[in-house]
């Protein structure tokens, strides 16, 4: 039956994620070398970047699920799509929070317009918040269809937004403020990879959890309805 | 595109333009809105400084983005009356033809506004001569309008079936149109001053072209699903 | 359905008559099952079916702010029929004198007649009519009667109506819907309209 297999899947992914997260946190804070310039606050970058990428993965899943919904019109794809987009949105907010903390610690301001990643995620949040506004303003099958269409369009917006912000910024701020690109020493890279996999694992775990809950709720509601009809 | 589709496209576009010319509601309101917006921006930012040239491109395209929201919102109003949309959908015209004709109609309204707003922005905000650059700016406008038209036609048609469509449309449309504003403002800025940075200008124009292409593909793939059939 | 055939779809409000008709008009996609209209699989080949369909509903489906002539030009182009027929069609519905006026200035009956003109222009083989007598004035009703009577030979008609007697009188097959299901589907040939009315009332209670 689907319940036990998805339950088992959840258990596997969940445990793996929990283990990875524990390893990542331990590794980042106790093993990875401290950055010479920024000190301990630089550590937040591991999480900032890995959550950012996980959120993009989430939006990608939302887009793909949207495409699959349009082709097959099966409810389960819409479930995956809406949950993935919701998680992506949640992670994006975390990206802004961690980025903001880092900015405050580095420069004393809570926000910098000069960081293309931060600005892009602001736009991304607006975009995917709009997804939910759209969802709440249409009903029935159309709701699922339009959500799928917008999930696709919004995902196409993301790289375009990022690129345009970066190009525009590069004319005003020729120095790239964000740190942690390809120039990370290998002692840091390994912990970055661990946190990245953990972040994606977190996304998958929450996705699976939410999917199971949704299906259970639906089944419960269907049973209630049947019961009412039988008693009437 | 077959001859028949071309005839249908032309008929639909003529319909939209005729409706606009005969009622003249939307274009005039859009132009007035654009001018009012630019005046507001001037009082919001411009009075703090004498140097408004750096802002010219930004103010112009912020204004045009907001005007575009108005225009897209109005563009499907005729179809909402009297069940006319059903009349179109039941006809043997492909959904793509409907989308493309709407996109071109929206782009046309935008061009009509730009014909007034661009020179006006030049007069209000740019110091020094700029008339020679109007041709370059026309290219920027055409490319930006393509992206605005395509997205506007797609989201506008979805908002036909939404509650609170006056709110839903801007919320969907504005964040999606941010790259256009950035690139168009950047291209405008590159040529607004005394010196023209053609490399920058070309880069931004290329970006606008790519944007229109990407969303053209997205619209092509998703538009058939907007309607219930 | 074959040429010259007419199906009347009856039923109380909310029974699903309009939904059924809209599906036949390829405006809606069925959740389950197959749909073949005028010999074409829908929704895959809906385009080909649409060229043969004429749909008339409660609303006339015309643009209020284009002139009558411009409206018909648009539909002529959409359906790929020559524009030469516009004048004749306008004359038939009695709107030739108002050809250059906008439907916004028309009465309801005139607007519906323009909708009828849209239909006549494209000479559809399948007529899908949803309560068409609703907005029609006397002249329009006459025309519609002709369409459904004398000129029916080359067309098939599906008529959704509240008017049980008329439906039975006009059609050769009758279907009654109730809460989304067909509770009756039989030939109308031998049916007496008033007797049928009683059966109908019983069915839909």
Could you explain the architecture of this structure?
The complex is a heterotrimer of chains A (232), B (229) and C (205). Chain A has a single domain, classed as Four Helix Bundle (Hemerythrin (Met), subunit A), CATH 1.20.120. Helices cover 83% and strands 0% of the residues of chain A. Chain A has 6 helices and no strands. Chain A has helices at residues 2-31, 44-72, 75-107, 116-137, 140-172, 186-231. In chain A, α3 packs antiparallel against α4. Chain A is globular. The model of chain A has no long low-confidence stretch (mean pLDDT 84). Chain B has one domain (3-225). Chain B contains 9 helices and no strands. In chain B, α2 (25-44) packs antiparallel against α3, α3 (53-75) runs parallel beside α7 (134-159) and α7 (134-159) runs parallel beside α9 (198-222). The relative contact order of chain B is 0.14. The longest helix of chain C is centred in the middle third of the chain and has 15 residues, at 108-122. Helix content of chain C is 38%, strand content 19%. Chain C folds into 2 domains: 1-52 and 124-205, P-loop containing nucleotide triphosphate hydrolases (Rossmann fold, 3-Layer(aba) Sandwich); 63-123, no CATH class. Chain C is of the alpha/beta class. In chain C, strands 4-5-6-1-7-8 form a 6-stranded mixed beta sheet, sandwiched between helices. Chain C has a two-stranded antiparallel sheet with strand order 2-3. Chain C has helices at residues 17-24, 46-50, 68-79, 86-92, 108-122, 138-148, 164-170, 193-204, and strands at 6-10, 35-37, 40-42, 53-56, 126-130, 156-160, 173-178, 181-187. Chain C is built from 8 helices and 8 strands; from the N terminus they run βαββαβαααβαβαββα. The chains are: A mainly alpha (232), B mainly alpha (229), C alpha/beta (205).
Order of helices and strands of chain C: EHEEHEHHHEHEHEEH
**Order of SSEs of chain B:** HHHHHHHHH
Q: In total, how many beta strands of chain C?
A: 8
Mean pLDDT of chain C: 82
Radius of gyration of chain C: 17 Å
Oligomer: heterotrimer
Key terms for this structure?
heterotrimer; B: 229 residues; mainly alpha; 9 helices; 80% helix; C: 205 residues; alpha/beta; Rossmann fold; 2 domains; two-stranded antiparallel sheet; 8 helices; 8 strands; globular
The gist of it:
The complex is a heterotrimer of chains A (232), B (229) and C (205). With 232 residues, chain A is mostly helical.
């Amino acid at each position: 039956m689907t319940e036990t297999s998805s339950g088992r899947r959840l258990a596997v992914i969940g445990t793996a994620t929990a283990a990875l997260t524990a390893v990542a946190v331990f590794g980042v804070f106790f093993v990875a070398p401290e950055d010479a310039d920024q000190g301990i606050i630089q550590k937040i970058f591991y999480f900032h970047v890995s959550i950012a990428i996980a959120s993009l993965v989430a939006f990608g899943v939302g887009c793909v699920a949207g495409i699959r919904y349009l082709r097959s019109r099966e409810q389960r794809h819409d479930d995956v799509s809406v949950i993935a987009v919701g998680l992506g949105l949640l992670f994006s907010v975390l990206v802004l929070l961690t980025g903001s903390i880092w900015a405050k610690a580095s420069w004393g301001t809570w926000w910098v317009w000069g960081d293309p990643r931060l600005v892009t995620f602001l736009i991304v949040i607006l975009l995917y918040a709009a997804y939910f506004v759209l969802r709440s303003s249409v009903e029935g099958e159309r709701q699922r269809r339009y959500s799928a269409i917008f999930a696709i369009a919004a995902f196409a917006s993301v790289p375009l937004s990022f690129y345009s912000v970066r190009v525009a910024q590069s004319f005003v701020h020729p120095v790239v403020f964000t740190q942690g690109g390809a120039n990370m020493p290998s002692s840091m890279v390994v912990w970055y990879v661990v946190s990245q996999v953990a972040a994606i694992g977190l996304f998958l775990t929450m996705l699976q959890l939410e999917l199971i809950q949704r299906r259970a709720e639906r089944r419960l509601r269907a049973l209630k309805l049947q019961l009412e009809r039988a008693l009437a | 595109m077959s001859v028949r589709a071309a005839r249908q496209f032309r008929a639909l576009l003529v319909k939209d333009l005729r409706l606009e010319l005969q009622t003249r509601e939307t274009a005039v309101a859009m132009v007035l809105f654009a001018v009012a917006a630019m005046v507001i921006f001037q009082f919001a930012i411009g009075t703090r400084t004498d140097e408004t040239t750096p802002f010219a491109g930004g103010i112009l395209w912020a204004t045009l983005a907001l005007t575009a929201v108005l225009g897209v919102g109005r563009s499907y109003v005729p179809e909402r009356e009297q069940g006319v949309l059903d009349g179109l959908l039941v006809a043997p015209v492909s959904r793509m033809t409907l989308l493309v004709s709407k996109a071109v109609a929206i782009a046309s309204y935008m061009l009509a506004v730009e014909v007034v707003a661009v020179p006006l922005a030049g007069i209000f905000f740019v110091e020094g001569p700029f008339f020679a650059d109007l041709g370059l700016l026309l290219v920027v406008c055409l490319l930006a309008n393509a992206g605005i038209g395509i997205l506007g036609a797609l989201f506008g048609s979805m908002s036909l079936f939404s509650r609170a469509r006056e709110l839903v449309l801007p919320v969907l449309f504005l964040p999606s149109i941010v790259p256009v504003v950035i690139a168009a403002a950047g291209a405008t800025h590159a040529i607004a001053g005394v010196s023209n940075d053609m490399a920058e200008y070309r880069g931004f124009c290329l970006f606008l072209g790519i944007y229109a292409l990407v969303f053209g593909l997205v619209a092509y793939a998703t538009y058939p699903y907007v309607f219930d059939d | 359905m074959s040429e010259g055939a007419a199906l009347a779809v009856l039923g109380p409000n909310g029974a699903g008559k309009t939904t059924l008709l809209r599906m036949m008009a390829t405006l809606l996609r069925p959740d389950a099952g197959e749909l073949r209209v005028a010999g074409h699989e829908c929704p895959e080949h809906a385009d080909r079916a649409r060229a043969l369909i004429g749909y008339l509903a409660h609303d006339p489906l015309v643009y209020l702010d284009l002139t009558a002539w411009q409206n018909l030009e648009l539909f002529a182009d959409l359906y790929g029929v020559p524009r030469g027929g516009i004048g004749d069609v306008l004359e038939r519905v009695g709107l030739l004198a108002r050809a250059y006026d906008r439907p916004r200035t028309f009465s309801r009956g005139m607007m519906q007649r323009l909708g009828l003109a849209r239909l006549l222009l494209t000479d559809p083989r399948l007529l899908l009519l949803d309560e068409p007598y609703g907005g029609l004035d006397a002249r329009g009703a006459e025309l519609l009667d002709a369409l459904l009577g004398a000129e029916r030979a080359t067309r098939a008609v599906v008529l959704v109506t509240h008017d049980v007697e008329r439906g039975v009188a006009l059609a050769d097959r009758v279907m009654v819907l109730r809460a989304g299901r067909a509770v009756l589907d039989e030939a109308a040939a031998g049916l007496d309209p008033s007797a049928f009315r009683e059966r109908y009332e019983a069915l839909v209670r």
